[in-house]
Amino acid sequence: MTDSALAAGLDPATLSDLLKVAGSPGFDRLTEQLRRTGGCTNPIRLTGGTKLLDPATKTVLHAYTTDAEPGGVLRVACGNRRASRCPACAWTYAGDTYHLIRAGLTGAPDKGTPETIRDHPRVFATLTAPSFGPVHNRPGTRPCRCGTRHPEDAPELGTPLDPSTYDYAGAVLWNNHASDLWRYFTIYLRREIAARAGLTQKAAREQSRVSFGKVAEYQKRGAVHFHAVIRFDGPDGPHTPPPAWATLDLLTDAIRAAATRVRVVVPAAPAHGVGQDLALTWGTQLDIQPINAFGQGEDLTEQAVASYVAKYATKAAETTGTTDHPVGNKEALILLDVPDHPRRLMEACLDLHAAYPDRRLRDWAHMLGFRGHFSTKSRSYSTTLGALRQVRADYRAHQQRTALGLPHPDEHPEATVLTVAHWTYAGHGHTAGESWLAANIHRDIQHNRQHAREIRTELEATDMGEW
Q1: Strand (E) or helix (H) holding 95
Q2: Fewer CB within a 10 Å sphere, N or C end of the chain?
Q3: What are the C-alpha distances in Å from 376 to residues 104, 364, 409?
Q4: pLDDT, tens digit, for every residue of 275-295?
Q5: Which of 164, 157, 165, 161 is nearest to 146 (CA)?
Q6: Alpha helices of 273-420 — where are they, by DSSP H?
């Protein structure tokens, strides 16, 4: 390990701490803890313990305490979804989101969604923000309006051609109300579906249901847009087929009409630069594509959609150059060296906070005003993130019971085991050496799982089945 650490160019302080950690008597157990957290960047440290008791005889079947752990603490994963905060936990979150979205596309009987939903009409829709001023872009084969053909990684992409005329107030107020725009969109969508089916809204609800799973993404210009899987179901959700009138064309037309109808009015605040009422609407760039079930020569397959949604579930406004934590004043933006365009957007949030205090623009300045959830779904779309996490927890509990020789509740329901636990928060984070070790553990886990996934995909493609 020392040679690899030297090769990585570690600074002397980190290398010194790493050598200290590697030479400690609890190094193997520390490594096991870090591996169980997936290489979490900022683990929670707990002190305490658990006891497993037989309630009938009061016999202690197993006892655990952190007294013998390295540093006297147990490290558990922080669970942060942001890749900028914890790549390891964000990777797990992205994986859960992938399975959640894919379960609503392909079906997953073990997750509560039947495989017959593949026959339901469903689309992948992208709803965007309107223009707040011309920005540098890459319009196909043509040069940008500034006369330059920008490369893909050009830093000026998404920034205004003329910052002095860009509507920064409108941009952050739009982000701030984006969740309201989505809520009204779902309301109008059901109305438009009923109108096109020639039914009352009550009759349409009795015959069909609309389910969705969506994720928010920031464009380079700092405006939020939504990617959503929208699916037609029967009256009882995914377990029933949609009626004959619930076609893909009807769903597509209803989405376009509903998006056009949405309008949220923000009152004027002349003292803060908003001279008149703002009518916030969706942008004209509305993209709706049918999702292909089996990838018959088309790019937009179920797996591609699930992967795309999962990719952006762990990203936020920091992708535009902002910070990933709240900022209370403009001076901090200068000290943090925030680029000009996101800095102006954040300053607009701070300036407008007094005009719209209930919108908490100052608190969400680091998110460029957006205050909604990044990943949401309707109740009947598919499984939940909580259910997926519970599966992992149950699996680990099953492993532990097997290792201890204890009865399993599912196999022996009459064998009740009482768990008594006491935990106390003891801090969070790593030392410099532990951080280096955790990062390498996360990298190895990710590499091994990616390799296994590639092998599985290759076997499925060649129809080899099992080895």
Answers
A1: helix 87-106
A2: C
A3: 13, 19, 33
A4: 899 999 999 999 999 997 655
A5: 161
A6: 302-312, 330-335, 340-352, 385-404
Give the range among 29-33, 245-249, 270-274 with minimum mean pLDDT: 270-274
Left if phi > 0, otherwise alpha if psi is -120 to 50, otherwise beta: which for 463?
Answer: left
d(CA 312, CA 300): 17
Angle in degrees, CA 204, 205, 209, rounded to 5: 105
Q: Which residues of 168-183 are buried (b: 16+ CB within 10 A; e: fewer)?
A: bbbbbbbbbbbbebbe
Q: What percent of the chain is predicted at pLDDT more than 70?
A: 93
Reduce the DSSP state of residue 158 to 3 states and report it. coil
User: Nearest 10 degrees: CA dihedral of 365, 367, 370, 374?
Assistant: -160
Residue 370 contacts residue 348 (beta carbons within 8 Å): no
List of residues 6+ apart from 159 with CB closer than 8 A: 135, 136, 220, 221, 340, 341
> 167 pLDDT band (50/70/90 cuts)?
very high
Lookup: tokens for 417: 């085991």
> In whole angstroms, what is the distance from residue 264 CA to residue 228 CA?
20
Q: Can you read off the two tokens belonging to residue 465?
A: 């089945």
Res. 319 pLDDT band, cuts 50 70 90: confident
Cβ-based neighbour number of residue 158 at 10 Å: 19
The amino acid present at 451, given as its one-letter code, is: H
Task: Name residue 421's amino acid.
Answer: A
Prediction pTM value: 0.85
What mean pLDDT comes out for the span 162-191?
96
* Residue 275 CB coordination number (10 Å): 11
